[in-house]
Q: What sequence folds into this?
C-alpha cells in the first residue's frame, strides 16, 4: 500500500493492527483501496440529509401544530409518535432486513416518505398527524438502517458522508426557521405557518431527490465494494445479508462492535439530555433576545424585540457545530485514537453542570459563555458520534456482518437519542 493510501485510511481508522491488516489485504495487497468518487460521496451526503430532514421538519413545526390544534403538549406527542415506532422498527430491521433487497427498501421508504410528508400539514385532526408521524418513524427506521448498513459495507468515506448529511439536515431546517422569523417580523405574518410551509415543501423536494439518486448510488456502492474485495462483494442492491440472521449471528456481531455501540449510545444520550430541552431554557443578558411567553400570557416590556430569539441562535450554533464535528473525520489527516474515544465521550459530562448553571441556579449569566459552551458541546457531539459510527462496523469481517453491524449501530444511536430526549424532558420539569 502506498503512503498516501495509508494516510487516507488513518483519517477514520482506529489505528489497531487488525484494521490496518484488513485494509492492506484488500485488492492485490500492493495498492490502496479504491476510493469513493465525488459523485458517490455527494449521493450519500444527500441520503444522509434525507434520513432526518423530515423529522427535523416535524419537530420544528411544533409551534404550528400547537396553534392549529390548541394543544400545549403537541411537541411531546410528536416525539413519542415518531421515536417509539422508530426504535421498535430498527430492532425489527436487525432480524427482518434480509426479506427485502436493500435498494428496494430505500426506494420504497423514501418514496412513501415523500407522500406522507407532503400531506402532513394538511391533515385536519391531531390524531391523523400523530398517525402520519408514527408511520414516518417506521419508514425512517427502514431507510436509516438501510443507508447506514450500505455505508458500513462500502467504507468509512460513505459513513462519514451520511453522518455529515444528517447534521446538514438539521442546519438547513434551522436556517429556514430563521428566515421565516425574519420574513414574518418584517411583513407581520405568522412565522410558524410560514416556517411549516418551508419545512414540508423542502422536505418533499429533498426526499424526491433521494429517490432519484438511490438506484445509482446503491449500484456504484456495490461496484466499489466489488473493486475493493477482489470480486467477493454481493451484486448491486442485495446488500450482504442473504438470509435471516439468527440470534447467535446477531450476538456475535453485536459483541464485536459492543464498544462503539455503547459509546455512541452514551454520546447521544448525553447530548439529548441537555439539548434542546435544558439548553433552550437559557436566558439572554439582553431582554430583547428573550422570546415572549406563549399567548395568552403578556410579554414584559422590552422583551421579544428581536426577530430571532436567543434560543434559536443557540440551536443554530449547535447545528453548525454538530455538522462541523460530524464532518471532521473526513477533513482531518489524522483523528482521535480509538483508545481515547471513550474518555473523550465521558469528559462531555462536564457540559451537564455547565448548562444547568446557566438556568437554575443561574450562576453563569453570559451570552458569550452560552454560545462558546454550545459550540464546543456541538462539535464534540458530532465528532465523537461520527467516529463511533465509522469505526464500529470496522470490527465486522464479512459484508453480511458489516450490514448487520451498521443496523445495530443505528439502533444503539437511536436508543441513546430516545433516552436522552426522555431524560431532557424530565430534567427540564425541575428547572
A:
Amino acid at each position: 500500500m502506498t503512503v498516501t493510501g495509508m494516510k487516507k485510511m488513518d483519517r477514520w481508522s482506529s489505528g489497531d493492527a487488525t484494521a490496518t491488516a484488513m485494509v492492506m489485504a484488500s485488492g492485490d495487497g500492493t495498492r490502496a483501496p479504491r476510493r469513493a468518487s465525488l459523485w458517490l460521496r455527494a449521493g450519500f451526503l444527500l441520503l444522509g440529509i434525507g434520513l432526518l430532514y423530515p423529522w427535523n421538519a416535524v419537530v420544528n413545526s411544533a409551534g404550528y401544530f400547537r396553534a392549529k390544534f390548541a394543544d400545549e403538549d403537541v411537541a411531546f406527542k410528536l416525539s413519542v409518535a415518531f421515536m417509539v415506532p422508530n426504535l421498535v422498527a430498527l430492532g425489527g430491521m436487525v432480524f427482518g432486513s434480509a426479506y427485502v433487497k436493500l435498494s428496494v427498501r430505500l426506494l420504497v421508504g423514501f418514496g412513501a416518505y415523500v407522500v406522507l410528508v407532503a400531506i402532513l400539514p394538511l391533515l385536519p385532526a391531531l390524531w391523523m398527524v400523530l398517525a402520519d408521524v408514527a408511520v414516518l418513524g417506521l419508514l425512517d427506521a427502514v431507510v436509516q438502517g438501510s443507508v447506514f448498513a450500505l455505508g458500513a459495507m462500502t467504507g468509512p468515506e460513505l459513513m462519514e458522508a451520511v453522518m455529515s448529511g444528517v447534521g446538514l439536515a438539521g442546519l438547513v431546517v434551522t436556517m429556514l426557521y430563521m428566515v421565516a422569523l425574519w420574513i414574518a417580523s418584517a411583513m407581520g405574518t405568522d412565522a410558524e405557518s410560514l416556517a411549516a410551509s418551508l419545512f414540508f415543501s423542502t422536505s418533499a423536494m429533498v426526499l424526491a431527490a433521494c429517490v432519484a439518486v438511490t438506484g445509482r448510488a446503491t449500484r456504484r456502492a456495490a461496484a466499489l465494494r466489488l473493486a475493493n474485495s477482489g470480486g467477493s462483494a454481493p451484486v448491486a442492491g442485495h446488500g450482504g445479508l442473504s438470509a435471516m440472521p439468527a440470534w447467535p449471528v446477531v450476538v456475535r456481531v453485536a459483541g464485536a462492535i459492543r464498544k462503539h455501540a455503547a459509546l455512541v449510545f452514551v454520546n447521544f444520550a448525553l447530548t439529548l439530555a441537555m439539548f434542546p430541552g435544558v439548553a433552550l431554557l437559557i436566558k439572554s443578558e439582553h431582554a430583547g433576545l428573550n422570546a415572549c411567553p406563549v399567548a395568552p400570557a403578556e410579554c414584559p416590556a422590552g422583551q421579544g424585540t428581536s426577530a430571532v430569539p436567543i434560543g434559536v441562535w443557540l440551536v443554530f450554533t449547535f447545528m453548525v457545530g454538530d455538522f462541523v464535528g460530524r464532518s471532521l473525520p473526513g477533513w482531518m489527516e489524522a483523528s482521535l485514537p480509538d483508545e481515547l474515544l471513550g474518555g473523550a465521550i465521558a469528559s462531555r459530562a462536564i457540559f451537564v453542570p455547565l448548562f444547568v448553571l446557566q438556568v437554575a441556579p443561574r450562576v453563569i449569566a453570559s451570552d458569550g459563555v452560552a454560545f462558546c459552551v454550545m459550540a464546543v458541546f456541538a462539535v464534540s457531539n458530532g465528532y465523537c458520534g461520527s467516529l463511533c459510527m465509522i469505526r464500529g462496523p470496522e470490527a465486522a469481517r464479512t459484508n453480511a456482518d458489516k450490514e448487520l453491524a451498521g443496523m445495530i449501530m443505528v439502533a444503539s444511536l437511536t436508543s441513546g437519542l430516545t433516552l436522552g430526549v426522555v431524560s431532557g424532558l424530565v430534567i427540564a420539569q425541575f428547572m
Observations:
- The chain has one domain: 34-429.
- The radius of gyration is 22 Å.
